[in-house]
Write a structure and sequence with these properties.
Layout: H1 21-37, E1 51-53, E2 57-61, E3 65-71, E4 80-85, E5 88-95, E6 114-121, E7 132-136, E8 139-145
Parallel strand pairs: 1-6
Antiparallel strand pairs: 2-3, 3-8, 4-5, 5-6, 7-8
Length: 162
Amino acid sequence: MNILKKNIPIRSTKATSNPFLSIQNELNRAMGDFYNWFEPFNFPVERFENLSLAPAVDIIEDSEHFKVEAEMPGMDEENVKVSIDNGILSIHGEKTISKKNNNKNYMSREISYGCYDRNISLPDSVDVNKAKATFKKGMLWVELPKRHEHAKESRVIEVEKI
């Protein structure tokens, strides 16, 4: 018996006149759902398999480059694809379940598996042809050099009266 799951019924002789009864019923339902989440035998492990996840990303700018750093734990460089199309940097990775994990009876499962996807809009100043990516120990670094454009001249235009 789980001592955390106690449903205390509320009795009211005038259920229609008690404005707090519906709030109490919702609170009871929410607390029951909360405690059910931690029940090991009712925990749906499949819920966490093949998820679509987004890796944590840092974007840095200096005078010469934009740099994107993405955390992709549990992956190798062959599991990661990086592309740029129409001004969008796409980072895709897939972390598959090991064959060693088959036939295990999990009581709890926190390690996530699935696809990692992230799309980042790039500014027009990125030189797409010189972009490069490196990967080591679950970290991806994408270096996006800026195009060197000539400094645009500026001037003040006088407004004439017609």
